[in-house]
Design brief:
Elements: E1 10-13, H1 38-57, E2 61-62, E3 68-70, H2 71-78, H3 83-88, E4 90-93, E5 99-102, H4 107-116, H5 119-122, E6 126-135, E7 147-156, H6 161-177, E8 183-189, H7 195-210, H8 216-224, H9 235-240, H10 255-268, E9 274-275, E10 289-295, E11 303-309, H11 313-316, E12 324-330, H12 331-342, E13 345-348, E14 352-356, H13 359-374, E15 379-381, H14 388-397, E16 402-406, H15 408-413, E17 415-420, E18 426-430, H16 434-438
Helix pairs in contact: 1-6, 6-10
The structure holds histidyl-adenosine monophosphate (HAM).
């Protein structure tokens, strides 16, 4: 278990370290993108380490794919009529006039790489994970960016409902390791190519009765993707569709037992969940299981992670029929939950600060810093010819654990005083064995 906030090598920063220098700046980051500043990256490193640790424990291996791909890959897999493909993709023609798109999600790229590199031939089940930036031109708001980071996993080659459950446990375990236990898991089944067309007809017939009263968005969806009408955030739409049939009650002989097995595996593990028969998710590739993990402290963009099964997609992309399931989780939203719940974030601090009183001491301190760093000890020293007082302030600001002040006397005698900055106590130390003293 990684205990981020009590680790002694980490110092605490107040959250609002950044100040806006005003509008005089010539260049600013693009709307919906964000700099990750040093005050934040310490926590990111910890979360990323937690993700990588958990992935290895669950036997997933990392895959890194390019951030841009042929536009048609995303249109084909995510769905031509989805919001992502119709409104949100960063698409451009390169100089060779090829239409390229910055990846809006990871699944399509991972499957493209799986097929291109014949990973399926190497093992019957391929378990992959990824971590990296995704791009969607959505309206920016808290927890919704245009460049955001996801971690995610895809398990390709099995239709076992146990793997669907594994995909839910994986992010839940990442969260639990970070001290977040109050997430909610919503589950649904969106059927397959056998039961979904039958259900769609039924749904369309019902929706047609109330068509004129639905919001313009839902009216458009009715003809293009009627299941997404159920997902509408519009209160009036939700009231109007309160009693329409739900796909979970119209599953075929294959999908129903699969859905039941997912639920019993979750129950056997004491993982609490609720069935949300209206959840269809914003990507078209799902079959059978669909799920979302939410956290109440996130406000309107409350999904921390989402995923599901996509048994038809690999064939759709030109491979042979292969069942698969996966999830992806937003990093920025996870950071919001961590920050809201702990109010402080962590960043690395030096073990030792070498303060120097004159020029020869400064050059000794620099050489010694390099030497100690080679041994893996985090050391900082002064590069601004500052007074001792200013150097001590710097050591405090950096939350250095120890300070040694070097002057001509220390250099002559070969010994100095190791000051513990937390307790304020000092003890003699040999300058030739600082590494041993810091032990
Ligand atoms: P998704 O639900 O579109 O699924 O995204 C997964 C997670 O990414 C969301 O729950 C959210 O935490 C985060 N996210 C999405 N959009 C944004 C945004 N604009 N700003 C910040 N965070 C965002 C997928 O991407 C699928 N590929 C998941 C999957 C993998 N299904 C099967 N395999």
């Amino acid at each position: 278990m990684i205990d981020i906030l009590s680790s002694s090598t980490f110092r605490r920063f107040p959250l609002s370290l950044t100040s806006d220098p005003g509008t005089r700046l010539k260049y600013r980051s693009i709307k919906g993108t964000k700099d990750l500043l040093p005050a934040e990256t310490g926590l990111w490193h910890h979360v990323e380490a937690d993700v990588r640790y958990m992935m290895s424990v669950f036997n997933y291996r990392e895959i890194r794919t390019p951030v841009f791909e042929a536009t048609s890959l995303f249109a084909r897999s995510i769905g031509e009529l989805t919001d992502i493909v119709t409104k949100e993709m960063y698409t451009f023609n390169d100089r060779g006039d090829e239409s390229l798109t910055l990846r809006p999600e990871g699944t399509a790229s991972v499957l493209r790489a799986y097929l291109q590199n014949n990973l399926g031939e190497q093992a019957p089940l391929t378990k992959l994970y990824y971590l990296g930036p995704m791009f969607r031109q959505e309206r920016p708001q808290a927890g919704r960016l245009r460049q955001f980071y996801q971690f995610g996993a895809e398990a390709i080659g099995s239709s076992s409902p146990l793997l669907d459950v594994e995909m839910m446990i994986l992010p839940l375990e990442v969260y639990r390791n970070l001290g977040i236990n109050d997430t909610k898991l919503a589950l649904n089944s969106v059927g397959c190519e056998k039961c979904r067309p039958r259900y769609k007809k039924l749904l369309i017939a019902e929706l047609k009765k109330i068509q004129k009263s639905l919001s313009p968005d839902s009216q458009a969806r009715l003809s293009q993707n009627p299941l997404r009408v159920l997902d509408s955030k519009d209160e009036r739409d939700r009231k109007l569709t309160a009693d329409v049939p739900l796909i979970k009650d119209h599953l075929c002989e294959e999908c129903r037992p699969h859905f039941e097995e997912v639920q019993s595996a979750l129950n056997a593990l004491n993982i609490s969940f609720h069935i949300d028969g209206r959840m269809v998710r914003g990507l078209d590739y799902y079959t059978k299981t669909a799920f979302e993990i939410t956290h109440q402290s996130l406000g309107s963009q409350d999904a921390l992670a989402g995923g599901g099964r996509y048994d038809l997609l690999i064939q759709e992309l030109g491979g042979k029929a292969t069942p698969a399931v996966g999830f992806a989780a937003g990093m920025e939203r996870l950071m919001i939950v961590l920050e809201k719940n702990k109010r402080e974030i962590a960043s690395p601090s030096p073990k030792l600060y070498l303060a120097a009183l004159d020029e020869p001491s400064r050059s000794w301190a620099f050489r010694t810093a390099v030497d100690l760093r080679k041994k893996g000890i985090a050391v900082e020293t002064d590069y601004l010819d500052r007074s001792l007082k200013a150097q001590m302030r710097d050591a405090n600001r950096l939350a250095a654990e120890y300070v040694v002040v070097i002057g001509s006397e220390e250099l002559k005698s070969g010994s100095g005083k190791l000051k513990n900055m937390r307790s304020g106590t000092e003890r003699p130390v040999s300058l030739s064995d600082l590494a041993g003293a810091l032990g």
